[in-house]
Design goal:
Elements (H helix, E strand, L loop, with lengths): L36 H37 L2 H4 L7 H37 L2 H14 L4 H26 L17 H25 L3 H9 L4 H12 L1 H17 L2 H6 L19 H8 L5 H34 L1
């Protein structure tokens, strides 16, 4: 009687049988870890904090719109009444003065701020750059009313000789034309005060951007024979371009919404004049609201709130444009 021995091929050999998959087993998938209560609470608080910004912005927009409706409905543009107040005639000079002063302040502040930021980040010794950076940061914390007192009491008399010289010798330029007479509480002085106020903001942000320039790129430029200025022009400034734009837009937003400093320095007016040395020609939206809101009737308050809505839209549009410029610079 002979017996046949059955041999089973070892696993991994070509003749090894393959066990069929279990039909009833669930498909394999990524393992899911249970979220702890602390993670859920933190995630919820983070989402709520982010949504709170949008909710606050929406509530402000709704408030300004609703409280402006009486002035809009009673305006000459809707009623056709010649005796009604025209919101365009009321708001347009304020918008002109606000934007004009902010642009002048930005033109004066940005070159100085970029120069200070480059000096702190690339030229000054560390033992001197650190205290200077602290001083710039502290300057940003000075209240606007202090800048207003400084501008109205100390700066105005000291700028009068310069303004009279410009008015006498460069009056063919529209900015320096007109009849300039002391006291020089004009748009030029207000722009100088605004430039000083936004200078620390632009400087601080630009400084941090310049310090993040890749060190290897700077050393490569110097190794190729570039001078310090050529390295800054070819490496540092292109790298920090988007940051400088962002810093400038932050400063522009501060200048557009500034109230007390402009109110204490500028003699108000309501015109579209380009003569920045003539007092009583311009005013800003924020300063006009601050000066008239205390004793305003409901109708006047509604018009003031409408100007606030216009300022809200202007700042929103400017920030949107700034974001687009920064995004394009980042892609480039």
């Amino acid at each position: 009687m002979s017996s046949t021995a059955t041999t089973t091929p070892a696993p991994g050999t070509p003749d090894a049988p393959v066990d069929p998959p279990d039909a009833g087993a669930p498909p394999a998938g990524p393992a899911r870890t249970a979220r702890r209560p602390g993670d859920l609470i933190f995630s919820g608080l983070s989402i709520a904090s982010g949504l709170l910004i949008f909710l606050t912005l929406l509530l402000v927009a709704i408030f300004l719109t609703v409280r402006s409706l009486p002035a809009i409905s009673a305006s000459r543009e809707l009623t056709g009444d010649a005796d009604a107040i025209s919101l365009i005639e009321f708001t347009a000079p304020l918008v002109f003065g606000t934007v004009f002063a902010a642009i002048l302040a930005l033109l004066m502040a940005v070159p100085v701020a970029v120069g200070i930021a480059l000096f702190i980040s690339h030229f000054a010794p560390r033992r001197f750059a650190t205290p200077l950076g602290f001083m710039i940061d502290l300057l940003a914390a000075v209240p606007s009313v202090v800048f207003g007192l400084w501008g109205g009491v100390w700066l105005v008399p000291r700028l009068e000789p310069l303004y009279l010289f410009l008015n006498q010798h460069l009056s063919f330029i529209p900015l320096f034309g007109g009849v300039a007479q002391p006291p020089m509480r004009n748009l030029a002085t207000a722009s100088v005060v605004l430039a000083v106020m936004i200078l620390p903001i632009i400087t601080a942000v630009s400084r941090e951007i310049f310090l993040q320039t890749p060190r290897l790129q700077e050393e490569a430029a110097l190794a190729l024979g570039a001078t310090r200025w050529e390295t800054i022009r070819a490496v540092v400034l292109p790298f920090g371009r988007s940051g400088v734009v962002s810093a400038s837009m932050l400063g522009l937003g501060r200048a557009l919404g500034e109230t007390m400093a402009v109110l204490m320095v500028l003699s108000p007016g309501a015109s579209f004049s380009l003569n920045i040395l003539v007092a009583g020609q311009h005013n800003s939206i924020a300063a006009n609201i601050a000066s008239q809101s205390a004793e305003a009737t409901p109708d006047v308050m509604s018009r003031l709130i409408f100007t606030g809505l216009v300022l809200f839209v202007i700042t929103f549009v400017i920030n949107a444009i700034a974001r687009a410029i920064v995004a394009r610079s980042a892609k480039g």
